[in-house]
Design brief:
alpha/beta; TIM Barrel; 8-stranded parallel beta barrel; two-stranded antiparallel ribbon; 12 strands; 18% strand
Amino acid sequence: MTQNAKSPGPVAAQQTLRGAGLGLRRPLLDELLEQKPACIDFVEVAPENWIGVGGSYGKRFREALQTWPLVCHGLSLSLGSPAPLDEVFLKQLKRFFDEHNVVLYSEHLSYCSDDGHLYDLMPIPFTRAAVTYVADRIKRIQDVVGRPLVIENVSYYAAPSQEMPEIEFLNAVLDTADCELLLDVNNIYVNSINHGYQAEDFLRDLPAERVAYFHMAGHYVEAEDLRIDTHGSPVCDPVWQLLDQAYAHCGPVPTLLERDFNIPPLTELVAEVERIKSLQAPYLNKATRSANG
């Protein structure tokens, strides 16, 4: 890893990124700019959806970034793909990040392409060879974009060629790549139902010191033993409870609400962001008391 891509660590990242955020989607732009809800401390976009966008959308996007810090959550790096990294795309990302002062950049620990894009996030086999392969690609990505890459634990519905548990694979990638984690709380819950483990145990086995920020989202209940990660509904009570446990384990980590489908009026999303902040508050107060001795 080059010197300028060396991770500053979650503590440094959280000094820049604080509180609660909302995924910035085009249907929300007008309402957000008109209302500028005080509870929203930062916004997040998929850079693929905004690179090269001009016109009225580009103008409003730049206006939003005068109000809120920006984090980027990618969709198409395809970390586990057998195909070579798309370094032309990586250079486009670097220009976009530099132009818009992006605070953090994250991607899914998955793959979505080989000869072409699959338009879905596929599970990387939980194998030792995959740990090394993915870690090497993370280091190369960081070299090209000149900043740390934060990886996200993903939802998955099959585990092909599995050699180790999900938690062991995730921790091995974090250690081998020496990178940070975007902890998706909903994905822990979804996977715990679909694959029969205890979400609380998985959470406790994660390295709190590597967590840069959290994601919160809703999912679809397909059956008693099957949840589908959709980002298309409100956050359910068990995931809110797991978020509180995540704060107990990691501290008052910056947390972003995702909503990609069935987008409701902004007031409903703001209510969920405010609930995030209410859960953060006791842990923020505790951290402040500890810092003040």
